[in-house]
Amino acid sequence: MIKYFKIILVLCLFAVTLCNANPVRDSISRFTFQKMSLLEECDACGCSANGGSMGFSSVFSNNFIGVRYFNQKYRSKDGIFNNSPWVTENFNTIQLWARIPITERIQVSALIPYHFHDRERAVGDEKIQGLGDLTVLAMYVVYQTHKDSAVYSHKLLAGGGIKAPTGKFDLKNNEGSVNPGFQIGTGSWDYLLSAEYVVKRNKLGLNTMLNYTFKTENKKFYEFGNQFNYAGTFFYLIDWQKLQIVPQLGVAGEQYESNSQYRQEVADSAGHIVFSKFGIEAGRNNFSLGLNFMLPLQQDLSNAKVESKYRWAVNLNYTL
């Protein structure tokens, strides 16, 4: 994992060296590439999935409203023993999401997820569904270039947010399973810090992102571990007839600290994972359609007792 984290840092440093002293604003189309970012919760803690490494906004639009579906598939131990059977878990989310400008430099994003999860256990199949945890994130444009004549364009954003415990947390869902993420919500108020940097030259660009989530104890005295995410994604704008198409390719990683219950560390609850990520988004007029995939490159979740198989998402957005 350290190797991939170093790759992301190198990409960030490379992007910074491209900066111009003269402020300029880039405009390659009526759409503006925003990010294929990551935010905390599309992870082994699928209970509060917000989008996670799948992204927190449209690849095209600064400001939009839309709907997104994403799926995560896991394989985990059904029990705490070495000979416990493996079970298949599917985390599904339909999400309303939006990004709205407050001022020229401040943008606010909101995510409202609805989860429906299932897993196949030896004692029978289990299914849960319901409204998940609401997330609100505010980002401030720290630096942005201002002229079309620049060879490179740059955008640096920083901000923070909050996740409210609007989804149900049921401690019984954790009994007999090493994957604590089979939940609708975390039951806790969680807090986010985020930063991203985008650099473009003509139609080629690079987006880099770092964020950290501080998680708190819920009313059931259970606390999910804090989480650190990082990502780097290359993208390229293609104009084809009346369509604009943006293929994307990158790497993303997630690092989880241990969970705790009654202030005691939960065994085998920490971990890390590194994904390859690739996708495409197409836009015409005010609408855009996106499809993204993530495949694990390296992982160690819950002391190898949980395995991520893949993630994928599709979204439809309307530009405001």
Please tell me about this protein's structure.
The protein is mainly beta and 320 residues long. The protein has one domain (2-319): Beta Barrel (Lipocalin), CATH 2.40.128.130. The chain contains one helix and 17 strands. The chain has one helix spanning 2-16, and strands at residues 64-77, 86-101, 106-121, 124-131, 134-144, 153-164, 190-201, 204-214, 222-223, 227-236, 238-240, 243-256, 260-261, 264-265, 271-284, 287-301, 306-319. A twelve-stranded antiparallel β-barrel has the order 1-2-3-5-6-7-8-10-12-15-16-17. It has a three-stranded antiparallel sheet with strand order 9-13-14, with no helix packed on it. 46% of the residues are buried.
Give the end-to-end Cα distance, rounded to a whole number of Å: 39 Å
Please name the fourth-level CATH homologous superfamily.
Autotransporter beta-domain
**Given the C-alpha coordinates, what overall shape results?**
globular
Mean pLDDT: 82
Biggest pleated-sheet summary:
12 strands, antiparallel, barrel
Helix content: under 10%
How many DSSP H or I helices? 1
In terms of structural class, how would the helical and strand content be classed? mainly beta
Number of strands: 17
Q: Look at the structure and give the CATH class.
A: Mainly Beta
* Order of strands in the sheet with most strands: 1-2-3-5-6-7-8-10-12-15-16-17
> Order of helices and strands, N to C?
HEEEEEEEEEEEEEEEEE
Overall radius of gyration: 20 Å
Please tell me the CATH architecture by its name.
Beta Barrel
